[in-house]
Automatic annotation (TrEMBL):
Pfam families named in the record: Beta-prop_RSE1_2nd
PANTHER family named among the record's database cross-references: DNA REPAIR/RNA PROCESSING CPSF FAMILY
Native source species: Salix koriyanagi
Domain of life: Eukaryota
Matches recorded under InterPro entries: Beta-prop_RSE1/DDB1/CPSF1_2nd, RSE1/DDB1/CFT1, WD40/YVTN_repeat-like_dom_sf
Name by which UniProt lists this protein: DNA REPAIR/RNA PROCESSING CPSF FAMILY
Span of domain RSE1/DDB1/CPSF1 second beta-propeller: 4-128
Length: 137
């Protein structure tokens, strides 16, 4: 996926849904993409060498190339409001100002690494890309 010459999917976000389309000779809706189709994505990206990631208000969905799906859910009464990510790291901001930092480990698993409570709501997040040969940005 990461090194494919052409894109294989288009992900369309709606207020209450996610639509995944495959790109080939024709463009067709994909029903078994692994993405939650009943929630709007805040971000969708490649992560690691072989995985897809869908971040939505209630969690992170990590879709492995072999079809395994790992979920991380937000704590009760909190939602994800901002996202920053690159190929190996993800930072999310929860309502109320908590930052949570994730990294892809050597097995390709997305792992929660650290949390930090901010003094207020986070307005924006960004994270630099990981340079070739490095593990962190």
């Amino acid at each position: 996926m990461l090194y494919d010459e052409f894109d294989a999917y288009i992900v369309v976000s709606f207020n209450n849904a996610t639509l995944v389309l495959s790109i080939g000779e024709t463009v067709e809706e994909v029903s078994d993409s692994g993405f939650l189709d009943t929630t709007p994505p805040l971000a969708v990206s490649l992560i690691g060498d072989d995985s897809l990631m869908q971040i939505h208000p209630n969690g992170i969905r990590h879709i492995r190339e072999d079809g395994r799906i790992n979920e991380w859910r937000t704590p009760a009464k909190r939602t994800i409001v901002k996202v920053g990510s690159n190929r190996l790291t993800v930072v999310i901001a929860l309502s109320g100002g908590e930052l949570i930092y994730f990294e892809v480990d050597i097995t390709g698993q997305l792992m929660e690494v650290e949390k930090h409570e901010m003094s207020g709501d986070v307005a924006c997040l960004g994270i630099a890309p990981v340079l070739e040969g490095r593990q962190r940005s």
